[in-house]
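@channel anyone free to eyeball this complex?
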Amino acid sequence: MLHSARIPIWVGLGGLTLFFAAQAARLRPEWSEQAELSARDPHYAEFQRFRERFGGHDHLIVLVQADTVFDPAVLAHLADVSEALRDIPLATDVVSLATVPIVRGTGEAARMEPFLPDLPPTPDVAKDLAREALGHEPWIGTLVSADGRTAAINVLLPAMNDDIGHRLEAVAAVEEILAKHRRPGTVVTFTGFSPLAHDMLRAINHDLLRFSFLMPLVVLICLWRAFRTWRGIWLPTLTVAVPVVWTLGLFNLAEGSLNAATAMLPTLVAVNGLSYAIHFLNDYHLACARTGDVREVLVGSVRRMGPALGMAALTTAIGFGTLVFAEMRSLRELGWATAVGILMAYGLGMVLMPLLLSGLPRPSPAALRHRELYWLRAGLGRIAAFVNRDRWKTPAALALLAALAAIGISRITADMDMTQYLPESMPSKRSLRTLQETMAGFQMLEVVLDAQPGTFLQPDGLHQIELMAERMAGLEGVDKVATVNDFYGELHRARHPGAPGRLPETPGQIAETRLLLASAGRRHLADAFVTPDGAVARLSVRLGCEGTAEHLRLARQIEALGGHELAPDIRVSLTGVTHLFAVKIHALTRSLFRSFGLTFLMITVLFSVLLRSPKAGICAMVPNILPVVAGFGLMGAIGISLNAATVMIASVGIGIAVDDTVHLVLRYRRERVAGRSPNSSVRHALLGTGRALVYSSVGLAAGFASLGVSQFRPNREFGLLVAFVLLVALAVDLFVTPYLMRLFNLFEPPEAE
Amino acid sequence: MNRAGAFLLALGLVVAAAGETSEPLRFGAPWPLGSKAMADLQAAARRLARQTDGRLNLRFVEQMDLGAGDESLAGMLLAGESLFRRSPAARVLALPMLAGNASESAALLAGFADAMAADLDGDGWAVLATLDLGFAYLVSMRPIARPADLESLRFWVPAGDSDSLRVFESFGVRGVPLEARAVRDALRTGELDALAVPPLGAIVMQCHVEVRHVLDDPLVHLAGVAAMRRGVLERMDPTDRRLVQEELAAAFEAIAADLRRQESESLEVLILSGVARTPVEAEEGRRAEWDAWAREVADRLVAGGHVSADGVAQARRLRESSPGGP
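replying in thread with the prediction:
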C-alpha cells in the first residue's frame, strides 16, 4: 500500500518536513530562572516576597590584586575602575573601598564621609587607610582581604534578571572597562553569577560546535562499520533527521524553549530513532539473505519489526513521559517533547524505511555475506552456547555486579556545585577561586525574620538580630553575617562614644540613626536589611562552603538556631538565589529518582500486558534495572555526586536499553511460538537480533562517550556514564536476558502445555 | 618638512592636547562630603563631564562656613549670611514667621526670585536655581509658648554671622555667637537657652538630646540660591553653559526636595527623642500674639535698615495671596 501511494506520501512528508523545519528554525535559546519555577512553589513564593521587600542583587565582583592594595597608585586605580564601572548597563550600585563611606569623628562631630580621600593619597595617608580598613571588621572579606592584598569592587545588578542578554552586555562592558584600565603590577579579574553564566554559555557554544561534528562522526563511523554500505549510513541518518526536524518544529509550535535541558531533545530523539533504524535495517538485511522479492522482504520486516519497535518506542516514551511530573519547566518540556519525538521517530521510521528501501535494489545475499562481521556472528554464537550451558556463572556475576553496585550506591551523595560546571581554564572560574581563597565565600544565604510591625525598629528587635548573627557566625562554614546592626552600630558608637552597648538603645536613637543614614544617602543600606515598617529583618550570610549538600546542612542548622534562640513571635525562614536553587536541585534530584521508579514500574506493567505474562514482564525488566544500578554504583565508587545532570542517566539509560531487551524478548518469543526449544530459541534470538543490539549499543555508547572530551564537567560525567550504562545494558542483554528467559521457560508453546 | 619642524609640530600637538585637560571648577556646597546631597552633586558633575567630553570638570567642595574663602570658588550655594550679604531682597524672606508652610514659602520664593537674581547679578553672580531649603524651628531648654517667653533667652548665633546676630537682637533675645560644635555643650552647661535650627541640623549637632521643647510652627524660612560667577559662565561654550545650568539646577532642586522631605522625619525623631512639641494654636489668641510679634520684628528691621519696607509689604502680599496663606 505504501509503495502504491508513495508519491502523495513523499509530497506530504516533504511538505510537512519543510513546514516543521521552518518552525524549528525559529527556536531560540532562552533561559529564565523564574520560568523554571512555579509561582505556586512555596520556596519560590518566599523568594519573591523577599525580593519585594528588600530588592535583590546579583553581585558582579571585580578583584584587584597587588602586593598591597593600600599603595597610593593602586588605590587610585581602584577608584578609577570603580568610577568607570558605574556606567555599565543595569548596574544599580558600585561598592568598593573607593565608594564606601566610613564614620569618622565622635559625638556631634561624627559624620559619614568617603573612606578614600582625594586621590592619590600620600604614602603615609595610605598606611593610615590600611589600618583603618583592616580594622573595620564588616569590610574584611567583602571589600578587602585580611592581608590587604586583594580588594573587591562589587557591582550590583538586579537579581534573576530574565534577560540573559542584558547580563551578558554587562559582562562585556566590564571586560571592556578592565581592558582599558590595565595597570602593571596589579591583577584584575572578575566573577559572579553573570560572568559565570557568560563563561558557561561560551563553554556550551564551544562544546556544541565540537559535538555537532564529533558525535555524528562517531555514530557514522559505527554505522559504516556495522553495515559497510553507503545506504547503511544515509538511510538511518535520513530516517532520524526527519523526526528530529518534526519534533523541533512541533516543540516550537507548542511554545517550548531551548535551554540547557531541552537542548538534549534532538540528541535523545536521534539516538532512539537511530536504534530503530538499525534494528529495521538489520532485519531487512537478514531477510534479504533468505528471500528474493524486495517487497515481500519489506512486508516481512514491517510485520516483524513493527510490533517490536512499537513496543520499544512506547516503553521509552513512557520513560521520558514521566518527566512531565518534574518540578522544573525545562524538564517537563524535555519529557513530553522527547516522548512525542520518540513516537514520531517510530512512526516515521516505519514509513520512511520501507519507502526508501522499496526504491533501492535489494542487496545480494553474496554481498551481505561479504559484509557480515563473522567474528561478531561467531561471538554471538559462543555467547548463546555459554548461556545455554550456564547454571551458576550468570547468577553469580549478577550477584557480584549487584553487590559492587550496592557498595558504590552506599557511597553516593546528592550534591551539586554550580561552580564545577565551568572548566578551571575559564577566567571567571579562576577569579572565583581567588575570591574563595582570599575573601568571604561566594554562596549567599538570606535569613529572614518575620515579626510584628515595628519590632525591628525597637532595641529588643535589634538585639534579637544581633543574637542570631552571633550564633550563626559561630557555625562552621559561615564566613560572614551582615545585618542592619553593622550600619546602626558603626554610626551609633561614633555618635554616642560613652554608650554602654554598640547598638542604639532607644527607639529615638534608632530613628536618629536611620535619619542620619538617609542624609548620608545610605538609608538604602539599612532598608536592604529591615523593612521600613520594622516587621521584617534580613540577615545575609556568606557561606564558605561549596555545593548544595553543605549549603543545605548549614541551612538546617540555622533554622534550628532560629527556633531555639529567638523570641517565639519571630518566625525564621531561609531564601536567596543560591538557597532556592540548592533546595530545588535537591528536590529535582529526588523527583527524578522517583520518576525513574515510576518509569520502571510502568514499563514492567506494560511489558507484562504486551507479553501477556507478568513473569515475562519482570524478567524483561531485570536486565534494564541492572545497568542503571551499575551506573549509580560507578558514580558512588568514583565520587561522582547525584545531581540534576547525572540523575538523568537513569531515564536516558533505561529509555535506550529497554529497546534492546524488547527486540531480544520478542524474537525469543517468536522462536518459541514457532516451536523451537529454549536453547535453540536463545541461539536464534541472539544471532537474529544480537548484531543490531551490538551495532546500536556500541554506536550510541561511542556517541555519548564523545561527550567525555567536553569542557563541561557535567557533560563529561553524563556522557561517560550513559556510555557505561549502555555497554553494561548490552552485556546484560546478551547474557542475562536469554539466561532468564531460558531459566523461567518463558513463552512455552501451547503444544507443550 | 625637516625633522626639527616635524618635532616642533608634534610637540605643539602634544601641548595642545595637554591644554584640553581643563582645571576643575570648584563649587562650594554646605554639606559634608559623605552626604547624599554631595553625592548627588558629584553625580551631576560626572554627567556633565560625560556630556561635554571632559570640558566641564566640576568639583564640589565642602564649605560649611559659607561666608569665608569663597573667592576661589566658581560657584556656590548661597544661603544664610553669604546670601544676605549679597542680596538685600533675600533678607526679607528670613523674617520670622513670614511663611508657615511649604506653599507660602514657595510663593514667597517665586515672588522674590527676580529681585534676588538682580542683587546677585550686581555682585557678579548668575543664578542657577532658587531653592526652598525648608524651615528653621525654635528649639529650647524650656517651653516657649508665646513671644513673651523669648525675653532674656540666650540664643545661638553662628560665630562670625553678624547679620544673624542683628536679626536675633531684633527678636528681643540675646545672641550668643558660638561655633556649631560648641552648641551642645553650651546647652548642657546653660550657656545657651535656645536656637533656631532646621530639625536635621539639631540632630546632627546632637542638640536634640539636650533641648526639651520645640515650637510647632516654623520660625524662619530658609532660602538658598545656587549661583555661579558670571565670568566663569560667560567663558563657557554656549552649549556647555546651557548644560551646566540645566544639570546643576536640576540637581540642587532635587536636593532641596530631599531636605524638605527629611524635615518632617527629623521632627519625628525629635519627638521620639523626648523633645516636647509646643503648639502655637494651643490657646486662643496665641497665634495672634506670635503674628503681632513677627510684625513688630519686621518693623524693627525695617527701621534699622536691614530690610526695605517695600520688600516687607511685598512679602506680606505674597503670603496672603498664596494658596496656603492666611
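from a first look: The first helix of chain B runs from residue 3 to 19.
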